[in-house]
Amino acid sequence: MGIANYFYNSTLRKYVALFGTYFNQMKIQRADNNGTVIQDMIVPISYAPFQKILARVTQDPKFLKGVAINLPRMSFEMTNMSYDPDRKVAPTRKLRKTGVDEEGGGRRFVYSGTPYNLDFSLYIMAKYNEDAVKILEQILPFFNPEFTSTVRLIDGLEPIDIPLILNDTTFEDLYEGDFEERRSVLYTLNFTMKGCSLDQNEIKQLLNLLIFVMHQILLQIPHLKSFILCNQEWQQIMSLQRIEL
Fold first, then answer.
1. Are 160 and 151 in contact (CB under 8 A)?
2. What is the pLDDT of residue 4?
3. Nearest to 122 by CA among 134, 110, 139
4. What is the pLDDT of residues 172-199, one digit of tens each?
5. Is residue 193 a contact partner of residue 72, using CB atoms and an 8 Å limit?
6. Please, are residues 135 and 27 in contact by the beta-carbon 8 Å criterion?
């Protein structure tokens, strides 16, 4: 049964890594009243739900344990994956690789794959709203409402376009409780990545098959059989295609 054949293209893992790469190494600056920059920091990002990050923040508001998560900070997670019928193409459509298989002599390929929408949520957490807005303003201008990257998902395969769509943005002020509680500002950005799940690698040997079929047909013609078996050029073609006569 074909579905039982083992293969792993690690496409989902690459989609998650791609999303995180978009927002990696983002910076914010803090200035004094004169406009002089006094602090320049990189905003860390990790794969985790925002509840886990904020739990670390609220558990030790007075820094008594000596270790706490500093804000601002970002985190993200994949929240859903659904089939996209609008992008469905013929299941026999192939994406060919650039190289040639050393053993079979054919070109490897993968089928076009099954289109899936991957939903991601990006969380921007900050102690001050101004810090969160500085991060937000570095993201919003690039999505109108999508940002498209050209990515090579599988080695040797031609790069494909992967759109990332910004669906909506929500704001929440998590300042609750008494004055000893730490204030946290949360911006949530919901995205949809237009990905696809690719099949296992196959070997393209259509040319070999056509030559073999033509060879078998010609052998059925009596006056051509002796010519084919004695013709050195034809024998050379069959040898190059690695077909046993």
1. yes
2. 55
3. 139
4. 887 655 555 566 889 999 999 999 887 6
5. no
6. no
d(CA 148, CA 160): 10
Query: Domains plus CATH for the chain?
Result: 2-204 (3.30.2000.40), 206-240 (no CATH)
Looking at this protein, which amino acid is placed at residue 61? P
Cα angle, residue 163 at apex, residues 162 and 166 outer, rounded to 5°: 145
pTM for this structure?
0.70
